[in-house]
Amino acid sequence: MTSRSLFLYAALLAAPALAQSEMEGETGEPGVEQPGPPADERLPGRDAMDFDREGFEEVTVTAPARAPERLGATGRSVTVLDGDTARRAGNRSVGDALRRAQGIEVDQGGGAGSLTTLRIRGAESDHALVLVDGVRVNEFGGGVDLFDLPLDGVERIEVYRGPGSAAWGADALSGVVHIVTRRGAGPPRFGLGTEAAGFGTWHERLWTTGRSGAVSWNVQGTRLDAANDFRNNAFEESASLGRFSLDVGEAGRVDWTADWRQSRNELPAEDTAGYGIGPRFIGGTFAVNKFFPGDPGSTVYTGDGYTRTRSYVSGLGYTHEVSERWTVTVAHHLYRHDASTRDRAPLVSGSSGRGLERQTVEARTSLEWAEGARTGVGVEWSESQVHADPVRVPFPSAGVQETFVSHGTWVEQAVETPQGLNLLAGARASRDTDYGSDTSLRTSATWRARATLTTLRSAWGTGFKAPSLNDINTSRQIRPERVESWEAGADQDLGEAVTLGATWFDQRFSDLVAGFPSRNVGRASADGLETTARWGPTAWSRVTAGYTWTRAWFLRSSNNGVRKQRMLRRPEHAGSLALDLTPTDQLGVGVSALFVGKAADKDFTDADFGLAHNTSSMDYVRLDAGLRYAQTDDLVLSLNVQNLLDEDYDEVAGFPTNGLNLGLGMELAF
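Above: the chain's sequence. Below: its structure in token form.
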């Protein structure tokens, strides 16, 4: 830890208690209220469900805004996925859980440990901002590998679809995913668990949680090993996650989240690469990144080597309630990520590495100055130090080591009226040392007709994405990618048990970046329809279903003359169906089905001189299921099944996923 970090931590911990008022609620980010009781206070299999607008109007979310916002009052598309529900359905990673959210496309390039990317509403895989307890975990100007984000310790996942730059700045071009970890509660408890699954998979976990006086904690360590289905394709990861809270007087609280993990991922060759003139010739670990103007976010590895990664997340914040309506928060965030790759290709071998260290300091306040009128204001400063080792393939380049500084100021105004009309407007002014200044805007409105239980909503916003390190290294003239988006939707309650919803969205992208060297190449559009249905016939059963129709086109390219073509890996049709049952306090059952239609793709595994072939992915149905049985308060047994139908499919062309995978687990607590 640098001396600057120690100084910032000391300054935050020394923040004075300004007034006397009791803290209320649990938070996913310092000073933000959570829905329901902490997960550790829940009985096994009870009070665990997905939250989505109707029926949960008082749930407060943080993904779309920097200040707390009621889910029932927001006009934007927000889904909250419950961690316990996802685990019961057999999901093991954040990526698996996100597949259930409408408008989300998750692509995994193989078995466990393979690169897993996220697309929101037809955007690129590096257009979504991902947060862990408010800390950015995107690489510099890039995306996030969702497989590095396991579900262990996750309380809930907030998914916001639509530009978020007015609140979060760069990288929130298409939306925000906020992963909220569990907070400790209740008497101190300790536990250990293990799971054995197919494809040589072993998962071990140690944890402790509780509260003693003014201190609460939830700490766990995990280990995952998987052999997968190909030669030289094993994956191993060790991780630790801790969340700590300290009450300061009656009105203040210090929160600290610390997440450390390291992994080793072997990269197969014979099953995923040709032996002629192609990616294997120009380098076993050649990454096809922004290689095709329709898909500037994908990365495919095609070598007989391995990659090592190490990351550290730290989020420290102090929140003070000056009064029941006025909250002030200061925070320091630190994110480090280092990756190194060893290439064992027969003609070209060597190693390469890259790294990022990002420090962010922010201060924000939320004031309800009149009944139903809330104003939020914040300032943020961030410094990113990035480096990349020299590489020789596909083109020789020197190493890079640079520092980038950015800062932003945001403001938002929310108004809720007794008549059911809720309005929100926000703006952010950002400035970066490399690409200059930018201003992002957003507005939303929602109206609730209580007589008919109908909700009408709409939203409009703009966003931008900062250039990545690769982009900046090849050209200093690259402009940030931008989007303008609008949406309109409605939700209808049919009694207390059934809710239907539909949203039409339209996004227009400009200054997209692609090619080598990187350059602004053109525009794109993505529009479509998202539909949802939720049915709770009993207090212990819940059915959710959704369907998304997406039309994504690359409109113009300045370097190859393409006028209109389908964007890669954007299925036109996708849907999900999930069943969650908790008939007793001891038993919980979850089943989830995913349908994904055909999509255009590029196959790099049989490329000639690095030029991929056009192809189309097959449509598929994936069925996952899980069961948790609490035999006693201290012993829980679990059964997880992934790809129950043993479907043979590729989410990334040429990189097949694992087949049927059965896992048996046991957890002891004391």
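The longest strand covers residues 350-370.
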